[in-house]
Design brief:
By secondary structure, this protein is α/β, with parallel strands linked by helices. The chain contains 13 helices and 17 strands. The strands form three sheets. An eight-stranded mixed beta sheet has the order 3-4-5-2-6-7-1-8, covered by helices on one side. The chain has a seven-stranded mixed beta sheet with strand order 9-15-12-11-10-13-14. The protein has a two-stranded antiparallel sheet with strand order 16-17. Helix 1 packs across helix 2 and helix 5 crosses helix 6. The longest helix is centred in the C-terminal third of the chain and has 18 residues. It is elongated, with a radius of gyration of 26 Å. It starts with 5 loop residues before the first strand and ends with a helix. The C terminus is likely disordered. The protein binds adenosine-5'-diphosphate and magnesium ion. The site of adenosine-5'-diphosphate has 12 residues, from helix 1. Adenosine-5'-diphosphate (ADP) binds next to helix 1.
């Protein structure tokens, strides 16, 4: 294999990643004296490492006469060395012990933290040293994914996708496991076996709804109906995001064609973004805090009316409980169509909007977690309440408010 600073293989279970790197590592150690370290984020004992796999490979590859297998390491007769370590056991100081290594193999690299990756990369610094990684993708923000599959991936990297279909050795027992997962939980199958990013996190509030949206192909191309105004639904934040969904309601369907969020910008910025989208601007729906005196002399609602002189600006009364908004969202979700490209960031946040963990029981509480995903979710709840109010008397009273 040609030299490269980074050699990565990602993919689902059973794609042969572990076996592939085990063989590659042994071949490297046989062909020249090589110091290699196999690293996991957490390694409590040597049993959690790939040492046993390497021992088996040494036998099946007929290399037994070339290696000494010791308790915690494998030594080559030619001076090669393979060790097994957990990155979390290392400090910025102790990691320096790895400076003389030629190869660092990151095992199950989706679990490797940013801290560990940041410590390791400058440590593996020998001339022509290489960092190898194998992993099952979790989501695009995981450190190894953003390093090796992100838009700024190092130039000197070779990254391949591995798939069980390409594994000629796939045992029947794994194939059966896979078929079972596929029949029982397609989303899980796509993640675990096909190596797709998870669409929703564990405990995601809208896990079922989002899965259904994808299965029913309601995440697709959604163009606004020409000539019909596009309403916007806002959640306002200063330090948090300001999140905006763009939608039209047509014959009972919610056509959600766009999404925008950012933080730390002023109102003019967001108004400009909405205008520059070029859609005929429909009603602007703001959350209750738009009525609070936040800006010099006027409320956000007033400022918005000044920015959009001929547009209706409505303020949605405060929801007594978050669960009211969540319930409203669940009700409209089956009738929602999302533009795959333009709402991608919003869908990502919806898939990560999740219930908090109850410290007493360790299970999920009924309250959603406030984090970087909740602003988009709150704005979506505004959309759900507002639009469902148009067709559903149950919410009319909530909507009567001051507008
Ligand atoms: N080179 C190989 N030689 C023999 N069996 C292999 C080889 N590669 C993969 N396999 C078989 O396929 C299974 C899955 O491979 P593995 O490397 O564990 O996949 P992954 O790490 O991608 O989940 C292994 O348990 C083994 O039975
Ligand atoms: Mg593996």
């Amino acid at each position: 294999m040609k030299p490269a600073r980074y050699k990565g293989a990602w993919g689902g279970r059973g794609s042969g990643k572990s076996h592939f790197y085990a063989e590659l590592l042994l071949e490297a150690c046989v062909s020249a004296p090589t110091r290699a370290v196999c690293l996991r984020e957490v390694q409590r004992s040597i049993k959690q490492s790939i040492k046993l796999l390497l021992e088996d490979k040494i036998k099946t590859m007929g290399l037994s006469s070339l290696f000494d297998v010791l308790e915690t390491e494998i030594r080559g007769k030619n001076g090669s060395l393979i060790t097994f370590q957990g990155l979390q056991n290392h400090t910025a100081d102790s990691i320096k012990s790895l400076e003389g290594y030629d190869i660092a193999l990151l095992v199950e690299a989706q679990a490797i933290s940013q801290r560990s990756l940041d410590m390791l990369r400058p440590t593996i610094r020998k001339e022509r040293s290489e960092i190898w990684a194998e992993w099952n993708p979790e989501n695009e923000d995981v450190p190894i994914d953003s390093l090796l599959r992100g838009k700024d991936a190092p130039a000197d990297s070779v990254v391949v996708e591995a798939n069980w279909r390409d594994n000629p050795f796939l045992p029947d027992v794994l194939l059966r496991e896979m078929e079972e997962d596929k029949a029982r939980d397609y989303d899980k199958y796509m993640h675990v076996w096909e190596g797709h990013y998870r669409r929703t996190l564990d405990g995601a509030v809208y896990a079922k709804e989002i899965r259904a949206a994808f299965e029913q192909k309601r995440v697709c191309r959604v163009l606004p109906i020409a000539g019909k105004p596009v309403d916007t639904f806002w959640d306002l934040g200063k330090r948090d995001h300001t999140a905006i969904w763009f939608a039209q309601m047509q014959l009972g369907e919610y056509r959600i064609s766009d999404f925008y969020q950012s933080r730390g910008e002023n109102l003019e910025h967001y108004a400009k973004v909405v205008k520059e989208r070029g859609y005929p601007i429909g009603t602007i729906w703001l959350p209750h805090d738009a009525e609070q005196e936040r800006l010099v002399g006027k409320t956000i609602a007033q400022a918005m009316r000044d920015l959009f002189p001929n547009i209706i600006v409505k303020v949605i009364p405060r929801m007594a409980k978050k669960s009211i908004g969540i319930e409203a969202a669940r009700r409209i979700f089956p009738n929602c169509y999302f533009d795959e490209e333009k709402t991608r960031e919003g869908m990502k946040a919806l898939g990560r909007f999740r219930y908090d963990v109850d410290p007493d029981t360790g299970g999920y509480s009924t309250n959603p977690l406030h984090d970087e995903n909740s602003d988009a979710a709150d704005a979506f709840a505004q959309l759900s309440l507002s639009l469902s109010a148009a067709s559903d008397t149950k919410y009319k009273s909530i909507m009567m408010g001051r507008n």
